[in-house]
Design brief:
Layout: H1 3-25, H2 31-46, H3 57-77
Helix pairs in contact: 1-2
């Protein structure tokens, strides 16, 4: 997957998470927290590259797909 597409997908997922969190919390979410949610989304969309992290959603998704592929191979060998 190209870096641009990966950044766009992650940005979209982050915006959807911010919208869902804001709707779930409603008025209980402080105005500063609302601004912080959108600031994180804005920074993520504007920054072209972030350093790699072991605690990333993409890493978790890749690990889950690799695990599923390994299980599929193991089941096909039986």
């Amino acid at each position: 997957m190209t870096q641009l597409l990966q950044n766009a997908l992650f940005g979209t997922a982050l915006i959807l998470a911010a919208v869902l969190l804001r709707r779930a919390m409603g008025e209980r979410l402080l105005p500063a927290a609302r601004l912080a949610l959108w600031a994180v989304c804005l920074i993520r969309l504007l920054a072209p590259v972030f350093p790699a992290s072991g605690l990333s959603l993409w890493g978790l998704a890749l690990a889950a797909s690799a695990f599923a592929a390994g299980m599929e191979i193991m089941l096909s060998l039986k």
